[in-house]
Design a protein that fits this description.
By secondary structure, the chain is an alpha+beta fold. Helix content is 33%, strand content 20%. The chain has two domains: 6-192, Rossmann fold (3-Layer(aba) Sandwich), CATH 3.40.50.620; 209-368, no CATH class. The protein has twelve helices and 16 strands.
Length: 369
């Protein structure tokens, strides 16, 4: 086996901020490898105060001795992949195999840019049901063409020696043979390395969330050219699809109302009630339906005029809610028709109601997610 001074070898590691990728980097640092981290964010990351997965990357870098970190925001290319993944979805709209392929290819670009010799990941054989079983990992390696330079330090002994092992850049005997879903070995190893601040392995991707997945599936079905801007709207408020007309998002609280204000694009219609009611955003030609839904969730005080500020791009108007809309608004979900005229399908995460509205035009469909 040829040997090389490890300190002269650079490696690029996919660092999520979770425990596994942090430990993988730690194992290689202990062998004298110069580790460079790359972290990916996407429109589907759950980087919120309740689940600060992005902040965990910064903490991981600090616990690894402030190794170099490159952050990459995945955009239109990623959205196109999510819409039509070559290898399908998991239980939600999560194309885990195609996601992994794309990220490894991007990491390889960075590897070549800095003159690094190999890649590594924190994958553990058998830990995730879609992308970390043996056949999936072999598929990923074949698709990227980078299997021989992609090292998985936590499960290395379950795979043939990679180029960095055969070259002697990495001592295979110091790598691990972890497998399965148990976290006990990783937690014990974290204690040995004094790695004490890491997130729970709950996942940080909205694509696995069943409600968000239904919203995204509906959006793709009704949109010829998906936009990153619209995807961000899907994670806010109550989502409605008006068949052949457009989509409506109704805020559930003040924070969501402010979020809709900040996300509203030049072609979006924003409705701000000048009474106690939710901020509402819609796209398409569904003003009356948006006003009805706004009023359905509103709590106007007696005597308050039902007036709404309507914004679209640079234009802003003050409009009173028409009387016909006021009559419909409070019974739009349940009472707009007699039971024999309405058909409601109740699923685990959303409700579909098909009905003939008061204007007599049949075939309007409300999808409420």
């Amino acid at each position: 086996m040829a040997t090389t001074n490890a300190a002269s070898i650079k490696a690029v590691g996919l660092l999520s901020g979770g425990l596994d990728s942090t430990l993988a980097a730690r194992l290689l640092l202990d062998q004298g490898i110069s580790v460079f981290a790359i972290n990916f964010t996407s429109p589907f990351c759950t980087c919120t105060p309740k689940n600060a997965s992005c902040a965990s990357v910064i903490r991981a870098v600090a616990q690894l001795g402030n190794i170099p970190l490159k952050r990459v925001a995945l955009g239109e290319e990623y959205l196109a992949m999510v819409r039509q993944p070559a290898h399908g979805y998991g239980r939600g709209m999560n194309p885990c195999i195609d996601c992994r392929i794309l990220k490894i290819r991007k990491a390889h670009e960075y590897m070549r840019e800095i003159g690094a010799s190999f890649l590594f990941t924190g994958e553990v054989l058998g830990q995730r049901p879609m992308s970390q079983h043996r056949r999936a990992i072999e598929l990923i390696d074949r698709s990227t063409g980078l299997g021989d330079i992609t090292l998985r330090p936590l499960s290395a002994h379950y795979f043939p020696p990679t180029l960095p092992e055969r070259k002697g850049w990495v001592n295979r005997d110091k790598l691990l043979a972890l497998s399965g879903r148990s976290r006990k070995p990783q937690i014990a190893l974290a204690g040995q390395y004094s790695i004490i601040d890491y997130p729970c392995p709950a996942g940080g991707c909205r694509l696995t969330d069943p409600v968000f997945a239904e919203r995204l599936r509906d959006y793709f079905e009704h949109t010829a050219t998906p936009r990153l801007h619209d995807v961000r709207l899907l994670g806010v408020g109550r989502y409605f699809r008006i068949r052949d007309k457009g989509m409506i998002v109704v805020a559930r609280n003040e924070n969501e109302g402010n979020r809709l204000r900040s996300l509203a694009g030049a072609s979006d219609h924003l409705l701000e009630p000048l009474f106690s009611g939710p901020v509402t955003l819609f796209q398409g030609s569904c003003l009356d339906e948006a006003l009805e839904l706004l009023l359905h969730y509103a709590l106007p005080k007696d005597g308050q005029p039902l007036v709404v500020r309507h914004k679209c791009g640079e234009e802003e108007t003050i409009i009173p809610i028409p009387e016909a809309v006021q009559r419909n608004g409070k019974d739009i979900i349940n009472d707009i028709l007699a039971p024999d005229q309405r058909l409601t399908f109740v699923f685990d995460s959303f409700i579909v109601t098909e009905y003939v509205p008061r204007n007599g035009i049949p075939g309007v469909l409300y999808k409420h997610f």
